[in-house]
Amino acid sequence: TVPKRHWSDFSGLAQFLKQSSASGSGKSELFRARVIYRWVVGHIKYKDLDTDSFPVRPAWQSPHGSYFNDGLSPQQTLVRRFTDCEGFALLYEALSREMGLQVMFISGFAGLNGVTGYHAWNAVQIDGQWEMVDVTWGAHPEQRERWFLTPKSKFLTSHVPDKEFLNTDCYSKLRLSPATLGSLKMQLHRQR
């Protein structure tokens, strides 16, 4: 029910989503995380991007600390209506933060339908627990429900985080070592 005038305006979209979830069931973290997921997967399409062709300036900084050029900023993703996995994860992260959720941008190695490679996804905290979300893969209509709050044990069969994420709250309880990550990546590569 987001008015079309907000579809390509990050501030307007974030404000509308915030206001629409300010009462009743909208106050729950699960509801807010779900609203953002459903809007993004329903309105943004996947496309490989040649990020070298975008302006080289730190136009936007993700809360996770990395600079991204204009082409991957949440605003540009909304204007363009397509992005790659980083753009999807950055948009989900930015909207979630606007909605008062704790969220992480995560990168690593993933495989789906016989294709493996670098990928980005999110973890969002709901009722004190970190849950896994992949808005990129959720943008495929036949996969939509599979990639929202996927159990971590199942998520690891297709998504292996870079080792820099091992000490985060999201993955630390799983006690994954760099050797385990390497093994998971090899298994994933062989399965595909």
Count of DSSP H/I helices: 8
Number of strands: 9
How many strands, what sense, and barrel or not for the largest sheet?
A: 5 strands, antiparallel
The shape is: globular
Helix content: 25-40%
What is the CA-CA span between the terminal residues? 39 Å
What's the oligomerization state? single chain
Arithmetic mean pLDDT: 80
- Specify Rg, calculated over alpha carbons: 16 Å
Pairing-aware structural class of the strands and helices? alpha+beta
**Strand proportion:** 15-25%
Strand order of the largest sheet: 8-7-6-5-9
Detail the poorly predicted runs: none
Order of helices and strands: HHEEEHEHEEEHEHEHH
Structure description:
This protein has 192 residues and is of the alpha+beta class. It has helices spanning 10-20, 29-43, 74-80, 85-98, 135-138, 152-155, 169-172, 178-191, and strands spanning 45-46, 60-61, 67-68, 82-83, 103-112, 115-126, 129-133, 148-150, 159-161. Helix 2 runs antiparallel to helix 4 (85-98) and helix 3 (74-80) packs across helix 4. The longest helix is centred in the N-terminal third of the chain and has 15 residues, at 29-43. The radius of gyration is 16 Å and the shape is globular. The termini are far apart.
List keywords for this structure.
192 residues, alpha+beta, two-stranded parallel ribbon, 9 strands, 38% helix, globular
Short description:
This protein has helices spanning 10-20, 29-43, 74-80, 85-98, 135-138, 152-155, 169-172, 178-191, and strands at 45-46, 60-61, 67-68, 82-83, 103-112, 115-126, 129-133, 148-150, 159-161.
Layout of strands and helices, then pairs:
Elements (H helix, E strand, L loop, with lengths): L9 H11 L8 H15 L1 E2 L13 E2 L5 E2 L5 H7 L1 E2 L1 H14 L4 E10 L2 E12 L2 E5 L1 H4 L9 E3 L1 H4 L3 E3 L7 H4 L5 H14 L1
Parallel strand pairs: 1-4
Antiparallel strand pairs: 2-3, 5-6, 5-9, 6-7, 7-8
